Amino acid sequence: MAKITLTDGRSVDASSPEGRHVLRHSTSHVMAQAVSSLFPGAKYAIGPAIEDGFYYDFDIGRPFTPEDLDAIDAKMREIIAEQQKFEHEALTRDEGLKRFADQPFKVEIIKGVEESEGGGESVSVFRNDGWEDLCLGPHLEHTGLIPAFKLMRVAGAYWRGDEHNPMLQRIYGTAWESQEALEQHLQMLEEAERRDHRKLGRELDLYSWADEVGPGLALWHPKGALVRKTLEDLSREMHLQFGYQPVFSPHLGRSTLWEVSGHLGYYRENMFPAMEADDGGEYIAKPMNCPFHILIYRSRTRSYRDLPIRLSELGTVYRYERSGTLHGLLRARGLTQDDSHIFCRPDQVVDELLGVIEFFRALYATVGMGPDRVRFSTRPDKSVGSDELWDLAQEAIPEALRRAGIDFTVDEGDGTFYGPKIDIDVRDAIGRYWQVATIQVDFNLPERFGLEYTDEDNVHKRPVMIHRALYGSMERFVGVLVEHYAGAFPTWLAPVQTVIVPIADRHAEHAAGLAEQLRAHGVRVDIDDSRETMQLKVRNAELQKAPYILVVGDKEIENATVAVRARGMGKARFGVPFDEFAGVHQGGPPREGLLPV
Q1: Which is the catalytic residue, given 127, 239, 302, 319?
Q2: Inter-residue contact 84 to 133 (CB < 8 Å)
Q3: Are residues 133 and 16 in the same domain?
Q4: Model-level pTM?
Q5: Does residue 144 form part of some domain?
Q6: Does 300 share its domain with 182?
Q7: Which of 239, 421, 468, 565 is catalytic?
Q8: Residue-wise pLDDT tens digits, 516-560
Q9: I need a labelling partner for 165 at 20 to 30 A (CA). Which of 53, 63, 466, 518 fits?
């Protein structure tokens, strides 16, 4: 691997996570330098490295144009060719305020700098060729070590992500350790655009959004609803197999419920405003299902013999995601979680986690994805619960993962305020990771709601609560699957599994009889009896990504056969006995059809 030298004197692999991070942050710095040179008086805010790229936020008094991006790109290449050296300087806070007096966003950042442990105040600055920026570093040794980059797009972004702050212009870019790596990334982005679930949702008539409903709230069309229902049916069936009990809960709850749960204190900005009722109460659309499941647990006295209790619900929740963060099904305001909560004794935590791991392995194997990456997140700085309970959970989670033979990484301090967690990622067909499932161990809510069980000595004890969602949300999971399969679902999940194409009008009645027989076998069937040519009808079925197309004409009727066109298998198979096709073509997982589609 190629090595790059950093400003702190170290040499790292350019293609390593650290190498790419420093490369991208340095490129972001160069971009801000170019903008400042081309647009005198430009105000620059922040410009971090992000996954696969970087961005920087600016205020130049107007939106950037495509011509502006071309000019910025050219100026950046000049700066890179000059191999300008990155130099570090530490300033006092007062020096920093003077140095950046004409940059209001930098002044705000500097004023927020806290006193260091040594009692002094310091600001870290990196500069090259007289231009400077606030930055902790490190950077590349010089700008010439940036081998390949591309500016991607411009978007609006509120300063500090707050809609009450000024709207800035954010330029996104990407940088890589070689031109080859950059080209591979751009090809992946082209493929990702082809697979965009919003585009495919329109083309395949799966779902849509309407201004009259509002952003982030999807309308599920019959075909999309069939995909979703198939996944939901699988989830319900497997929950019963794994010992979960189904429950239902309302979409609203009094504000007092959310006060007790802590959501009003910790999650208020992500909740929709309260609605007043004539009973004097305020009601809020639920952002989570867990408080309702807790109330079901608390509705009667529980003994240690009752535990574990596993409650499960496909519950729809509503979250006030800001409009700028919404992204089709992947980031929505209305979402349905396969939400389950396990109430157990402390000595049962490891076994229950092992059960959840077994569950998600079986579920994902059926769906045909992952799990591909597992992360264990530990106690954050701000948390609730005793050290004893945290120690219990933080010992139980890695023990369960190791006993299950699962490799995992540790994200120190990235747990929730109420307990540590496991996050599970899947990797799609073009190499992208998606975080879907999450498992959380919670001590906070049992304490807040006073949950109890009586042990064998009739002493009241506090149960431990495990939150888990394996799809994550139905909306997000469907969106991920659409992009993973590029809309060409496996047969068991396809909304239409077989399209029957009668060659002429006189064959339509026979096609209808075949469809009726297939439906009796549980196969989802459409008939294209339009007046289009047979070739065009076959092409339309292919565009809808149907796993099977059956063509019937005089010869097929006479011989009780069909011509089978299986998706991705090239030429059609003629003379296939219909009974053979109908007998082996089944709809549910994990079975496939006549051919491996």
Answers
A1: 319
A2: no
A3: yes
A4: 0.86
A5: yes
A6: no
A7: 421
A8: 999 988 899 999 999 899 999 999 999 999 999 999 999 999 999
A9: 53
